[in-house]
Specification:
The protein is 42% helix and 6% strand. With 229 residues, the chain is mainly alpha-helical. β3 (154-155) and β4 (160-163) form a beta hairpin. The model is unreliable at 166-170 (pLDDT under 50).
């Protein structure tokens, strides 16, 4: 609770995800855990990429260095907390070794044809959340940032959003509303929900809920690859 107080929602989610990787050690008193046990978690950490409903489950992959860095950082904080409370005398997490950084591969992007298909579905109302996918592509918002938008974040007169989550510099940044998105923004705001994009009862959505029940099903229905916005 203390650490999360000054962290963005994205950073909180990343630490929550890192916590799950430490679950094999949950029944061992922290004073009995050594570097080797933590290193094994770093060395064997994997994840399973998102698959479409029509696809076979994709094979597990090794976690990225950034994920492993979060696991190490969380471990260091846990052991620091234990030291502050005289539970342990040494921070074994500080001795963890991470793999060398790999060259970053170019991320895949939606093609202009795919963006046009999403826009067409949004205009024709053939996919309920296509307008949201299109607005994220045109604004550059992450899903978590996009779902935070409410009527106070939107200035239709100046055609701008005011939002941002990931970094301190990202807070309250001004993002233009693309002219082709103005009608979608108006329609979403007219629903009068807690946020600009919300459930049918007007309540806010979590990023995980949106990904699972709105975002990926929409891309599948339109026939577009399951890429990040």
């Amino acid at each position: 609770a203390i650490k999360f107080r000054n962290l963005s929602r994205d950073t909180q989610n990343s630490y929550t995800a890192a916590w799950k990787y430490l679950m094999p050690l949950k029944d061992i008193p922290i004073k009995n855990i050594r570097t080797g046990q933590l290193q094994k978690i770093i060395d064997t950490a994997t994840y399973r990429p998102q698959s479409k409903k029509s696809e076979k489950p994709k094979p597990e992959r090794r976690c990225s260095r950034s994920t492993l860095e979060k696991i190490k950082a969380l471990s260091v904080m846990l052991w620091d907390y234990a030291m502050q409370n005289d539970v342990v005398e040494k921070n074994y997490a500080k001795f963890l070794s991470l793999p060398k950084s790999q060259h970053r591969t170019e991320k895949e992007h939606f093609t202009s044809i795919e963006v046009a298909k999403i826009k067409a579905a949004a205009d024709a109302h053939t996919a309920p959340w296509a307008d949201c996918v299109y607005m994220m592509i045109k604004s550059g918002f992450r899903i978590s940032e996009f779902l935070m938008l409410d009527r106070f974040s939107v200035d239709l007169e100046r055609q701008t959003f005011r939002a941002g989550l990931k970094t301190e510099a990202g807070f309250d940044r001004i993002v233009p509303i693309h002219p082709s998105c103005v009608s979608f923004v108006r329609r979403r705001l007219a629903q009068g929900g807690e946020r600009m994009v919300c459930k049918s009862d007007g309540s806010a959505m979590t990023p995980n809920y949106f990904r699972k029940y709105c975002y990926y099903p929409t891309l599948e229905a339109i026939g577009v690859r399951a890429l990040n916005p």
